[in-house]
Amino acid sequence: MRAACTGAAHPLEDDQPAADLYVVVGSAVSVRCEAGTGAEWRRNGTEPPLGVVLKLDNVSLEDGGLYTCHTAGGDLRRKLSLQPGYPPSPPKVHCWSPNYPLSVMCSWNEEPEPILPTNYTATYSLENSADVRPCHSTTGQSRVCLLRGAELFSIKPHILNVTAINPLGSSTRLLPFVLEDIVKPDPPMEVRAVPVMTKQLVVEWSPPASWSTLVHFPLKYRVRYRLDGEDISRTLGPYESTRMVLKGLRPGKTYHVQVSAQELLDLGQSSDWSAPVSATVSPQ
Q1: Where does the Ig-like domain start and stop, copy by copy (predicted)?
Q2: pLDDT, tens only, 180-224
C-alpha cells in the first residue's frame, strides 16, 4: 500500500490533529515527507529519524503510532497516525429467544478481531420479504441486538443480516432461523436448597424474570445435583412446578444443586444451568 503525505506551506501547531492512515496488517506502506531538502520522518516524536520516506514492507500491529514529518530545521509539517488492523470478516452470529415469542437476542463476534473501530448494522426479514426491520443494538453493547415481532410458526425462515464496516472494508453474514428452533430461556432464578429431614433437601426456584409469557407458554424444569468433591452429577425431572425434594442423600454431606428451564412443549433447547447453590444434609 502506498500513501502520500503532501507538503504544507507553514509549520503545524503541535496540537493539530493527525491524519489517520489505516493499513492492513501485512501490507506495505510508503509515504514521502514533502518538506524540502533534509526532510525526515520521526516516530512518536523521537530520534533517530526514519528518513524522507516512511517505508514499511510488512506492517505489524507494533508499527502503529504517531509519525511526524519535519523540515531540516525541525519544523513540524505533517502528522500521520498509522493504524494497522484488519478488514472485517463475516461475523459469526448466534440468535436465541429468551422470551418466546416476544423477543429474539442476537450476538456476534469476528475472527480475527478487526482491531480498528468497526460499526455494525443488523436487520431482519422473512425470507424473500421486502419488509426489512432493524435489530436494535442493546445499550452499551455494539455486538448484541434485540429484535421484536418475529412471526410464530412461519413456514419461511427469518433472515438476520449483520454487516460489519470499518475503514478497511465491510463484510456481511446472513443467518436464517426459525423462531421455534431458537427458543432458549434464561436460567431459573433464586435457587434454594434447604435441609428438611434426614437424607432430604427441598429445592425451590423462580422462573427466569425475562420469560414474561409464562401463562401462555409454561416452562418445565430439570434439577442437577452432585456430592461435594465428586465430578459425577445426577439429573432429575422434568418438573412443571418450581419445587421438588431430593431424597436418599447422605447425612451430613454437602451437595451442589442447579436448575435449568425449557419451554413445556420442547420448543428450542434448555436454558443454561443456574449457578450452583450448596446445602448440607442434616446429620442422622
Answers
A1: 1-81
A2: 999 999 999 999 999 998 899 999 999 999 999 999 999 999 999
In a domain, 152, yes or no: yes
Task: Return the SS3 of 86.
Answer: coil
Categorise residue 74: left if φ over 0, alpha if ψ from -120 to 50, beta otherwise: left
Q: Judge whether 136 lies within some domain.
A: yes
The cell for 87 is 478488514
CA–CA distance, 211 with 184 (Å, rounded to integer)? 10
**Is the pLDDT higher at 8 or at 245?**
245
Task: Categorise residue 35: left if φ over 0, alpha if ψ from -120 to 50, beta otherwise.
Answer: alpha
**Among the listed residues 247, 255, 253, the one whose alpha carbon sits nearest the alpha carbon of residue 284:** 253
> Domains in the chain: how many in total?
3
Quickly state the pLDDT bin for 240 (edges 50, 70, 90). very high
pLDDT tens readout for residues 213-234:
999 999 999 999 999 999 999 9
CA atoms 50, 52, 56, 59: torsion sign: positive
Q: Phi then psi for 211, rounded to 5 degrees? A: -90, 90
Query: At which of 51, 69, 85 does a domain end?
Result: 85
Q: Which amino acid is at 201?
A: L
Q: Given 155, 182, 209, which residue is the final one in a domain?
A: 182
The cell 501485512 sits on which residue? 26
